[in-house]
Every structure is written in structure tokens, then in C-alpha cells.
Design brief:
It is a single chain. The protein is α/β, with parallel strands linked by helices. It has 2 domains: 25-144, Rossmann fold (3-Layer(aba) Sandwich); 150-216, Helicase, Ruva Protein, domain 3 (Orthogonal Bundle), CATH 1.10.8. The chain contains 8 helices and 5 strands. A 5-stranded parallel beta sheet has the order 2-3-4-1-5, with helices on both faces. Strand 3 (85-89), helix 3 (96-112) and strand 4 (115-120) form a beta-alpha-beta unit. The protein is elongated and about 55 Å long. Residues 1-8 have low confidence and may be disordered.
Length: 218
């Protein structure tokens, strides 16, 4: 009989420290610098394929700002009120009214010296948005978030497992990378399910057969 163990695994939250940068070293450095100072460019637009780490970076930036005592808000598909740091994810999903609101927020944040981070799937010139908003998003720092290669994904998986307090054998990592979907959020979700499955089995070590059970149950 399996045993369901709740609340055992340490909570994992996105941070700039647990973001595996890969080819995104310059972007990560620029975010750290912007969050630690009040000068310089205060507008960021980051873009790239789904699952590449955009959401992680926006949520991590907001979390770091809050930890330093700043007011900070993260939103996806909607536009929040103004704060010292505002992150708006998935900009192409905004409807007409939300695009107008983001345009106004951009101007307000620029006047107040606040920091606005926006993400999307395409570079500003290729976004299907209002012309004035698309132009504004291209005024600040624009970075493409490059997807991780397999070695970097393996590093991210091992870091995630370590943060949750369980050991991830290399053969399990290799199987997951060969047979799972390619995007990192999916891979991390499978890892969380594997961890939970091991806990239900009274902390049995992670193995390829157990991983196969988890992947079949999806």
C-alpha cells in the first residue's frame, strides 16, 4: 500500500539564482543590475519560444524586488496597477482594452522611474499589437531568451531536484530528456511528479522504471 506524504518537499520558487542562464548571461546580468539600481534603462522586453524561461525571469525579478522592500507586481494576460516594479507576461494575449492600459502604464512608469518588464513570443516588430504599444516596447532593452541545450536542461533538472531535497540519478535525467517534451516547464513538472511518486512509495529512490510510471500516467 502506498502512503501519501504531504508537505514534505521544500517549496521551490523561481529566482535569479536558480535560473540556468545558458546563452542568456547578458540578460541575467542586465536584470540584476537594473534591480539593484535606480538609474539606467528601466524598460525590458524579453521574447522567445514558449517554455524558454521568460516567466521564470519575470517572476524572479518581482520576487527579488519584493525581498528588497520594493512594491512589485506580476501579471499574465492582464495589466496590473502601477508599482515600483511591474512585470507583464504573455503580452500578445492582451485584448484591445488591456493594450491601451499597458500603453498608459508604460508612460506612467517611465515618468515615475519605475521598472517595467514585458515578455512575448516574438520580437517587438513582429507583435500583433497596437502600433504605439509595439513601438514603446522596442524603446527599452530588448533581449531574446535563448532556449537551453540538453546539457543545460540537465543542470536545471539537477538543481531543481536538489532544491526539493531528492537525488536525481543521471540515468533518470537522460531518459527524461530523451523521451519527454523539450520545454523546461514540462520537464520540471514531471520531476515534481516523480518526487511525489517516490514520497508515496515511502521515499524510494528515483529510478527510470518509476519515471516511466509517472510519464505513462500523464
Amino acid at each position: 500500500m502506498t502512503q501519501l506524504l504531504l508537505g514534505i518537499a521544500p517549496e521551490w520558487n523561481p529566482s535569479l539564482d536558480n535560473f540556468v542562464s545558458g546563452r542568456n548571461v547578458e540578460l541575467l546580468s542586465a536584470l540584476r543590475h537594473a534591480l539593484s539600481s535606480t538609474g539606467g534603462e528601466r524598460g525590458f522586453y524579453i521574447w522567445g519560444e514558449e517554455g524558454g524561461g521568460k516567466t521564470h525571469l519575470l517572476q524572479a525579478a518581482v520576487a527579488q524586488a519584493k525581498s528588497s522592500g520594493q512594491t512589485a507586481l506580476y501579471a499574465c494576460g492582464v495589466v496590473p496597477e502601477a508599482a515600483q516594479i511591474v512585470a507583464v507576461d504573455d503580452v500578445e494575449s492582451l485584448n484591445d482594452d488591456a493594450q491601451i492600459a499597458l500603453f498608459a502604464l508604460y508612460n506612467s512608469m517611465r515618468e515615475s522611474g519605475g521598472m517595467l518588464l514585458v515578455s512575448g513570443k516574438a520580437a517587438p516588430a513582429h507583435l500583433q499589437l497596437r502600433d504605439d504599444l509595439r513601438t514603446r516596447l522596442g524603446w527599452g532593452l530588448v533581449y531574446q531568451v535563448h532556449a537551453l541545450n540538453d546539457a543545460e536542461k540537465a543542470q536545471a533538472l539537477h538543481q531543481h531536484a536538489q532544491a526539493r531535497g531528492f537525488e536525481l540519478p543521471n540515468e533518470v535525467t537522460h531518459y527524461l530528456l530523451r523521451h519527454g517534451r523539450r520545454d523546461l516547464p514540462y520537464l520540471l513538472d514531471v520531476l515534481d511528479e516523480l518526487d511525489a511518486h517516490c514520497l508515496r512509495l515511502k521515499k524510494r529512490a528515483a529510478t527510470v522504471p518509476l519515471l516511466k510510471e509517472v510519464m505513462r500516467s500523464e
